[in-house]
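(Fold this chain)
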Amino acid sequence: MKYTGRIVLLTLSLLSWILIIVHSYSYQVYGKMDIIYLICALANIGLGWFLGKHYDIAKFYSEKDYLTQVYTRRYGLKTLSSLLQKMEQKKKELSLFVVDVDKFKQINDTYGHDTGDWVLKCIATSLVNCTRKTDIITRWGGDEFLIVAPDTNNYDLFAFLIRIENQLKEVSMILNLEISLSIGVSSYPDDALNIDELIRIADKNMYLTKIKKS
């Protein structure tokens, strides 16, 4: 969670307090007023921190999925749009992954929704561990995730698939369940130049992968 709200509001609180002090001393207000100013300053700083903290919490949960703690679909689409513009300006590539949990309904039906939620959280953590800080991981809906990876090539794609496969083996052992994913990939600018088409192609490739497994 970022500290943007707390830093901004705390800074504004300090500045407003300093302005009050400067203004008061310009009129030669001394003595007992110093204690009042100190109390008001501490109260002002505390209020700024309190309001800033609640702003940061609200912003965090507006961007992050409550269950998995990865980004929301809305935030993912917004970020993907800006990333595509940057890749176009820098003449660089971007890869998009659509990730679907295999037989997730069966897991829910057999072991219950609590176990299903735990599987999703473990998979989200695995995806975070297997990607870079510059990559954006979004819970696309239900048991689907979307990963946006700027400035990647075919070697990076292969390396990611190997890492996630190894991570899933560990998750399967921990949960005592066989966990697998179907992943579809599309690349900018080779496959498409706009968001909708990139997602459509990656989604289609994901379903082709799933069909091959069945």
Observations:
- The chain has seven helices and four strands.
- Residues 7 and 183 are 40 Å apart (CA to CA).
